[in-house]
């Protein structure tokens, strides 16, 4: 049995207006493996080419380290983020995907839908 990490997303609303700033925090708890950068991406549903946000961030697990338990909280947009403010310029349903590398050596992800009107 695998210990999947717990990824919680706070502050993300279900509905936004066009061009309304999107801010949120992510907390990652669990056993993670090094060798990959955790990643957040927000794309328009059914159209991965319509990406409104994409960022990879440093893993708290040092490179070449054994899998270990971590607890990491990040607030987005991050300070000095060149993509800020995060917003959608057109109406539709968007999907936020947060992915991390679990102790099993493969990616684990959480998805949340956002409606923009």
TrEMBL record:
Protein name as it appears in the record: Uncharacterized protein
Organism: Nitrososphaera gargensis (strain Ga9.2)
């Amino acid at each position: 049995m695998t210990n999947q990490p717990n990824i919680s997303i706070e502050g993300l609303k279900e509905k936004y207006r066009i061009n309304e700033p999107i801010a949120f925090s992510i907390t990652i708890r669990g056993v993670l493996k090094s060798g990959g950068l955790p990643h957040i991406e927000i794309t328009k549903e059914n159209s991965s080419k319509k990406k409104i946000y994409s960022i990879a961030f440093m893993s708290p697990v040092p490179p070449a380290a054994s899998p270990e338990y971590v607890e990491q909280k990040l607030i987005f947009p991050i300070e000095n983020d060149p993509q800020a403010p995060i917003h959608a310029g057109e109406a539709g349903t968007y999907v936020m995907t947060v992915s991390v590398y679990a102790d099993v050596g493969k990616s684990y992800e959480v998805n949340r839908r956002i409606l923009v009107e």
